[in-house]
């Protein structure tokens, strides 16, 4: 199965636009017009957890890959003392910056590792990052003098592209690199617009199943970010009416909704090709139109997350759904 990829030029343009050396800052639209000085407190309300940042963090740790890539895309590697929980290969334009930051844990670091790194800021991508089992609660970390931010777009029902832009703007504001944030967001919007313009109007969206995993049942996307990616790419997520982020459905429900395309989420020890073979050989799933037409699209998990690869993900999906529009 051929993986559709955007050009390296498009990938790199996002990063080059964000990593400008010009660090003059401006407030976002929800704040006053004047940009905060370096020693001026910035107040962030992150999921009802309010923190006053009296200065930009200097020893940050990113806890999941998609938020690591946001930090690096903003040129913040010199303000980081660690990264953790890499799902797959880092975004190629960010590889050099990534190599400058220590990997302190393959999955979540322990509280002791965080303290030993003298971290002053933790950036979590998933809600699992902050609890008594993994590292510590946000309240406990605050008592230790460690501020935290949890990606809004990754922890809500039915996130949109705009929610990712909001997270990027917040991180840029916390680190006093707002102009870089604005450039990154603008470039992402421009790249998404370039793809959707080339795709053109889709009168009847293709019915799409997102296949993460499953044997007896299917683990699929409901109203998580994949729902937004599929929609923007001219598809209709067949389980987009389920009021959850991810959900488990029966094979019979999949057959009943008759997907015309199956998006394979690629990660872990089971390859995308193995997932496709399973679907093709399953007595129930093999009967859907997508299998009859051999219409599969492979999307890396890191591209499916709420980060800087949104335009890449939309490009992969749109070209996979409607290859005739991109020839």
TrEMBL record:
Domain Fe/B12 periplasmic-binding intervals: 59-325
The residues forming the signal peptide are 1-17
Keywords of this entry: Lipoprotein, Signal
The record ties this protein, via CDD domains, to: TroA_a
Give the family from UniProt: Belongs to the bacterial solute-binding protein 8 family.
What protein am I looking at? Lipoprotein
Q: Which organism is it from?
A: Lysinibacillus piscis
């Amino acid at each position: 199965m051929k993986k559709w990829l955007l050009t390296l030029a498009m990938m790199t343009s996002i990063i080059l636009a964000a990593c400008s050396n010009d660090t003059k800052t401006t407030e976002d639209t929800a704040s006053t017009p004047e940009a905060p000085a370096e020693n001026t407190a910035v107040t962030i309300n992150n999921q009802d957890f309010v923190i006053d940042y009296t200065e930009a963090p200097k020893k940050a740790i990113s806890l999941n890959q998609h938020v690591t890539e946001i930090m690096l895309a903003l040129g913040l590697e010199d303000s980081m003392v660690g990264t953790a929980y890499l799902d797959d290969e880092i975004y190629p334009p960010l590889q050099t910056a990534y190599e400058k930051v220590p990997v302190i844990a393959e999955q979540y670091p322990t509280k002791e590792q965080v303290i030993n790194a003298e971290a002053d800021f933790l950036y979590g991508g998933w809600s699992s990052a902050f609890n008594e089992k993994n590292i510590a609660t946000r309240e406990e970390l605050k008592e230790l003098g460690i501020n935290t931010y949890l990606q809004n777009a990754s922890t809500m029902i039915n996130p949109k592209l705009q929610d990712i832009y909001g997270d990027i703007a917040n991180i840029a504001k916390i680190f006093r690199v707002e102009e870089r944030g604005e450039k990154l967001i603008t470039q992402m919007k421009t790249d998404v617009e370039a793809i959707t313009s080339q795709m053109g109007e889709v009168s009847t969206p293709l019915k799409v199943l997102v296949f993460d995993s499953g044997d007896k049942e299917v683990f699929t996307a409901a109203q998580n970010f994949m729902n937004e990616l599929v929609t923007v790419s001219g598809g209709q997520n067949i389980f987009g009416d389920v009021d959850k982020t991810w959900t488990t459905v029966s094979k019979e429900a999949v057959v009943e909704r008759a997907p015309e395309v199956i998006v394979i989420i690629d990660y872990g020890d089971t390859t995308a090709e193995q997932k496709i073979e399973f679907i093709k050989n399953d007595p129930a799933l093999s009967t859907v139109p997508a299998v009859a037409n051999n219409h599969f699209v492979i999307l890396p998990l890191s591209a499916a997350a709420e980060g800087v690869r949104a335009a890449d993900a939309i490009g992969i999906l749109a070209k996979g759904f409607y290859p005739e529009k991109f020839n």
